[in-house]
């Protein structure tokens, strides 16, 4: 199985793809070629999240450099994308926004020419990307793809050794987690100096499997795994010891590439590129610090109020950035504004606990003015710069309110108390007594910390104290709880559709229910007949016209009346007197396989059945000469069959549509026949052109395909009469895996090989040939010609 290579972003000091954007290049072939393939698709057996991007979109994650490259997404050019890095049990540990640019690379994060972590978001930290993290890309809040960081990496520099038979060897070892798909890995040694050698490229590569010669020569390589200790070993045997030394001392070093998915065309999706020896953290100037490089964010809404003997402080507790050390407490400092001999007096407090929300600093001089600084503290430092506040003298009493306001309620109510001044303390009572009298707090008063529930008739009284000690007026709300609510909305179960009727069922919970009402609606939204009532949780709605769609709602009632309605169910169409059921649509079917249609559920007995193939997208029967037509065996039975044909020019890739018509004509008067359609969608086969080369007397095309056993046909462009010349054909057969994948976005999983048999001279006047072409001994197919 041949493996594709992927385009990697370059290192610092090299031109970045985001600094050199270009349109994808299309190669024009000599003459117009039409390719036809007859075979079934062979899909790589991989398992991964359905959210992994689809080619040509991709997310490439470089965990060692905390760097992400976003490829493709050209249908979002000019839009702002949000990339988030999420860690299980922690949350979002890094994020950035960037505008999608035209080119193979949409944008990059933490790489020269790209954007910084935290760009456009409030999370100003460069995350330390770890195995298991998930990188997600979204537009306008809608997630369009994600990539899980895979746990595989090189653990040591390449080691140079010697074998007496074949030259010098180089080995690279590393770790690979059991959840990484081994066939989806590749080890590389990157060294630009190799380009000028027989290797002919900037790296050497090892793929899973035994030692295999490189296509261009110079070395053989293989990649083996030890499941017992979750390690891998990549071995390179070079023909020239000098090449081995270059590889072993590679300046750009060793990498392990692993990816989540290989699609049917061989494209690698969801890539993790682990680079041995690379340093994490900010990749260029201006990036925010890493999670272990700076202190935590500070508390918010810091308020300072002058009180007798000092300053009272309140704040909202600080929240640590996900992935960074926990906040352990706070430092609050009063800094005297007076400077003596270049010094200012500081008086402060150290407060323990992340949840602390205030303190009082005492011992301040009455004739001095102070500035307040508050910082959060963690194991790696404290907030920089500190959060500041200026003490205020407050003589205005706060106000306090309750939500909801008092009244009569059918169910218990959750009451929320709110003061207008931040840092205020609220106390309340539920027994009708006042929470404060003059300046003394009622011992039964409760400090409000969170909304509370009132489940019986209650008078709530409440009062607020602001940070300065000012006291609000006493508030009061009375709640009457009747505990007689109407029922909740029921939930429909699966309906049963019959002839002229539909049986509905539903579930409903407390409070006690005395009955239900069902309303039927037409597709226009109009009610069909009156409300149908029952005491059961099932109801058969009869008297419905067959094949006419209807919608249904149900509501429960008790002594207080009907409660809210359920979600609307439908459209549901009852069966008519004659029923046609062509079965569910089928997709992903393989060419040259037997397909069975099913009319199960259709009217039988004296009924007649007729299956007809239609032109897909129309109600017109397919013409007998249409290349997409098939032959139905048993077209008048309930279960006809046909063989899904090989794809062959001029067939199309459209789905096949079949109609079942059921007639019951022996009754008086005859009943209207019923019809139903089913769509059969074949699985597409893929042919990829690898190279197309021409020289006088020799025109060669090589390629790959997703299927073994098919025939590839090379044709000229149609002439004015719509006819084309067949240049030749080649069979598709499986090829042995090469040592490395070819350069490019992706490689199909099966190589086309074979001979062009019976090709004669097409242009003898131009010096062509007259003998058949012999079978080439290569994993390719070729068409020689002259003067085209």
Summarize the model shown.
With 788 residues, the chain is mainly β.
Features:
1 helix; 56 strands; 788 residues; six-stranded antiparallel beta sheet; 40% strand; disordered C terminus; mainly beta; flat
Number of helices: 1
What is the CA-atom radius of gyration, in angstroms? 38 Å
Query: How many β-strands, per DSSP?
Result: 56
The main pleated sheet reads as:
7 strands, mixed
Q: Can you tell me the overall shape?
A: flat
Task: Provide the residue-averaged pLDDT.
Answer: 81
What structural class should be given to the helix and strand makeup? Answer: mainly beta
Describe the overall structure:
The protein is flat. A hairpin with a 3-residue loop joins β10 (159-163) and β11. The strands form 14 sheets. Strands 6-3-2-18-17-12-13 form a 7-stranded mixed β-sheet, with no helix packed on it. Strands 9, 10, 11, 14, 15 and 16 form a 6-stranded antiparallel β-sheet that branches. Strands 21, 22, 24, 25 and 26 form a 5-stranded antiparallel β-sheet that branches. The protein is mainly β and 788 residues long. It contains 1 helix and 56 strands.
